[in-house]
Specification:
DNA polymerase, domain 1, two-stranded parallel sheet, mainly alpha, 4 strands
């Protein structure tokens, strides 16, 4: 009987243990089921992070799946004259546009030259290639027949010649003619042939080719009066930095009107090399 009673007690204990285990296992789930959900509260800093994160994520996803759109130029164009902003208007990024200008450092002479620029996407290349022109291969302007001569019979004053007159020189097409005039206007005129190397894409070889056909009249140079010009007027000239312009005006204010252009050498910021460079553009 003792064994039987022990056996019943054991079974009863096991049953109680199982029931307790079941209750403990089910109870947390029942509590979660009947407990209402409370809204999650974020700190101000956490809210800012979440708000800033979502738009970036959506923007990146949109950018990833949006196909790049390229534009067709409204008219035929010379790729040699296009700037970074012009190429960006066609759909290139700033880095791509800058790379195109580096490729074209010595000029695009044909469609084949442009096709070698690998940074221009094939889709954009297909859209623009038939709209490109290369003026240096074009004939001289027929409205100036008197200028159609061989180089050995042409001498052009680059301080007064028009773009059309400059184009009469062999090797100077519309592109170089335009940039020679542009640099001339910035400087106020040329005083020596070597300054033509400052013209965009002008190479030493190109300059040697056209030298026999150019003449320089220094009397046509626009000059700055060192006794009346303001610092702003000096600064507009490509050869003047703000420090140099300001130093000249301060020197004038301290010592009175200059009696000679050489008086500028009193300025400690003006080197001999720079003085000789700007002297042709100065007057009293």
């Amino acid at each position: 009987m003792n064994n039987l009673e022990f056996s019943k007690r054991s079974r009863r204990a096991i049953l109680v243990f199982v029931l307790l285990f079941i209750i403990l296992a089910i109870m947390p789930r029942l509590i979660l089921f009947y407990t209402p959900e409370k809204p999650i509260k974020f700190s101000w800093r956490e809210q800012q992070i979440i708000q800033n994160f979502k738009p970036v994520k959506e923007e990146n996803r949109k950018e990833k799946y949006t196909k790049k759109k390229f534009n067709i130029p409204s008219k035929k164009f010379d790729p040699n004259t296009y700037s970074v902003s012009d190429w960006m208007l066609l759909g290139l990024s700033k880095k791509q546009a800058e790379a195109v200008l580096k490729f074209g450092k010595y000029g695009f002479k044909s469609k084949e030259d442009l096709k070698r620029v690998f940074v221009i996407p094939k889709e954009l290349m297909r859209k623009i290639i038939d709209s490109t022109i290369y003026p240096e291969k074009m004939k001289y302007n027929t409205s100036f027949p008197e200028l159609k001569k061989e180089n050995n019979n042409i001498v052009v004053d680059i301080n007064s010649a028009s773009e059309e007159e400059l184009q009469a020189i062999k090797g100077v097409g519309p592109f170089f003619a335009k940039n020679i005039v542009k640099r001339r206007e910035q400087l106020g005129g040329y005083w020596k042939e070597e300054q033509l190397q400052e013209v965009w894409k002008m190479t030493p070889e190109k300059l040697e080719e056209i030298k026999p056909c150019i003449n320089i009249d220094p009397e046509k140079i626009k000059k700055l009066n060192i006794n009346t010009a303001s610092a702003e007027e000096f600064k507009k000239h490509p050869y003047f930095t703000w420090n140099i312009a300001n130093a000249i005006v301060k020197l004038r204010n301290q010592h009175g009107p200059f009696k000679s252009i050489n008086d500028l050498k009193m300025s400690v910021v003006l080197t001999e090399e720079l003085f000789l460079k700007i002297k042709p553009y100065l007057t009293l």
